[in-house]
Amino acid sequence: MADEVRNVIIIGSGPAGYTAGLYSARALLEPLMFAGYMSGGQLMLTSDIENFPGYPEGIGGPEMMIQLREQAEKFGLEVQDKNVERVDFSTKPFRIWVEGEEFRSKSVIICTGAESIWLGAEGEEEQKGRGISTCATCDGAFFREQEVLVIGGGDSAMEEATFLTRFASKVTLLHRRDVFRASKVMYERALNNPKIEIRTFRTVKSWLSDESGLSGAILEDPRDGSTEEISCTGAFIAIGHKPITNFLDGQVQTDDSGYILAKIHTMTSVDGVFAAGDVVDTRYRQAITAAGMGCQAAIDAEKWLEEQH
Ligand SMILES: Cc1cc2nc3c(=O)[nH]c(=O)nc-3n(C[C@H](O)[C@H](O)[C@H](O)COP(=O)(O)OP(=O)(O)OC[C@H]3O[C@@H](n4cnc5c(N)ncnc54)[C@H](O)[C@@H]3O)c2cc1C
Predict the structure, then answer these.
(1) Is 138 a catalytic residue?
(2) What confidence tens digit (pLDDT) does each residue in 27-82 have?
(3) Is residue 207 within 8 Å of residue 195, measured between CB atoms?
């Protein structure tokens, strides 16, 4: 066990984590970050970011995350590329176990994000963040006048399909059943859009690609296993997100899906434990909103620590 009690430990190294790190380092709190299994977060999976202010030519995801880390480290953020295994928030200082070692801290900022749920179809890994995305707001504009697929049957799938018609020449929405979880109004909006074709009883068996990227997919009818080929240059998987909160073991209040609930500003149900970014965000899920919340959480943590004296 480290003897030292830190002022603030930040869990997670996406835009929320690094921004929280930057602010708390500049507030001289000497923060420690555990970057986790995916150092740099979800943007490490994407090639071009055109909607983060300050980059008129756009920037690669990994490149931007390296810059965020460098900036925060320059002001004193200490980063360890390790995963937090479990926490104990029932005692103060809080206790955190990282790859067998115990750390203690007066405050904690949780920035562990929410994983997109992927299909796991053959050929998907190679096209992730290129031809295949889980975020139409982020990547829709890369598919102007192209044919794209949307996979899913809930409100997000309908919303993504409708949004994509601004750019794409055709959007084919695939759903594995003929019953939709989406609300009637969202479903009908998609159904009545002339650019959207809805095809039921279709799953993606495998993705096809050529030298220029994604070129199509082999679809399967789950009722009889019959297959067909469809061409597309982009695909958006909209089957949900999973917030990464398992390691908290129910010690912080969450909603039914596992998203952390805020009590006051960014403070969670545990005094002194804050949360920021996609792990609390069921609506926006953008790098800039995650970074904004990381800033808020660092300021909230700093004020809370000040009040403890
Ligand atoms: C393919 C793709 C493309 C995208 N494109 C864009 C875009 O163009 N523009 C945009 O604004 N947004 C984009 N997004 C969304 C954006 O990536 C997220 O909104 C943003 O990364 C959320 O930031 P975050 O800091 O909340 O969490 P994340 O970036 O998800 O980071 C979570 C961090 O938590 C860490 N972690 C998890 N568990 C543990 C643990 N137990 N211990 C320690 N650390 C842990 C992980 O290692 C990771 O570092 C895209 C997302 C995807 C998937």
Answers:
(1) yes
(2) 999 999 999 999 999 998 887 899 999 999 999 999 999 999 999 999 999 999 99
(3) no
Token duo for residue 277 = 């970014």
Task: Give the domain-ending residue among 237, 265, 292.
Answer: 237
Is 139 assigned a catalytic role? yes
Per the structure, the complete domain to which residue 174 belongs is given by 118-237
| pLDDT value for 1 | 60
Residues 282 and 263 in one domain: yes
**Omega before 93 cis (within 30°)?**
yes
Dist CA 285 CA 197 (whole Å): 27
**Whether 254 and 183 share a structural domain:** no
Pairing of strands 5-11, 101-110: parallel
Pick the residue whose CA is nearest to atom 9 on ligand 1: 138
Ligand 1 pocket check: which of 42, 59, 98 to mutate, most ligand atoms within 8 Å of Cβ? 42
Instruction: Say if residue 266 is in the same domain as residue 229.
Output: no
* Identity of the amino acid at 292: G
My answer on whether 167 and 21 are in the same domain is no
C-alpha 91 – ligand 1 centre gap (Å) = 29
Q: Tell me: the pLDDT tens digits for 101-127?
A: 999 999 999 999 999 999 999 999 999
Distance 43 CA to ligand 1 centre (A): 6
Catalytic option among 3, 48, 135, 255: 135
